[in-house]
Amino acid sequence: MSRVRRVWPLALLAACPGWGLAAQSAAQSAAQSAEIEALARLEARIESGATEGVAGAIERWLSTTPDPSREAVGRARYSRVRLMSDADSARAELLALALDGGSSHGARVWLRLGQLELAAGDPARAAAAFERLRADYPRSAAATASWYWTGRTFEDRGLLDRACEGWTRAIRAAQDGGDAASARLAAAAAAGCAPGAARFTVQVAAFSTPEAAAEMRSQLEADGFPAHVVEEGGLHRVRVGRFATPEAARGLERSLRLAGFSVAVSAAEP
Q: Which entry of 17, 79, 90, 162 is 20 to 30 Å from 112 by CA?
């Protein structure tokens, strides 16, 4: 009789081969759910500002979690980037993560990358990151935010008209269900876009001849600065950019000084 009892469970498993696999799958699913919950708790701590020990916990999660999904790894890596204090390291990791793909955080990755590029003083690369975001994730809330930040990249270069276009796109995107917070930022920025409002520019030099002014303008444009010449008071004044406020012009003023130009922010025609 004992022999029959020992054989019976084996016979049952042979008759139902999927039973063992189903149990194993259920166990794996439970383990994966626990791992995702642990990752979500770490993300919540970052959101709340309670970040002490979180970086180490994320590293342990990445090194000890058995067979995590690509999505989960992307989430963990993005959380790790948010804790980095070195901007260059963060930009390099974000770019690698963005190009890897496979994460629902992809739109946020491109948005954060563009913001860091802008903070690092490279508005052109920032604009490229925002454009890539909209191409890959056109229906995301981050796509609405990207239009606001795209406006900022143009503002930093003194291209006020194009900046206003970006902010207008952000406002329209929010009306179609996009990110309302970004639309509010865009609306505040666009207040300076009204016709007839005060305008400011960065003056580089003033010449008595148009030829000298044209030569300086060509030099500035070769260095990536959108220059123009205005005849005023008997002089040909070489200026870069148009801004809604003098504060907005300060960044370009600093960039021009670093490039070796002697400049000053001045009022411009509306």
A: 162
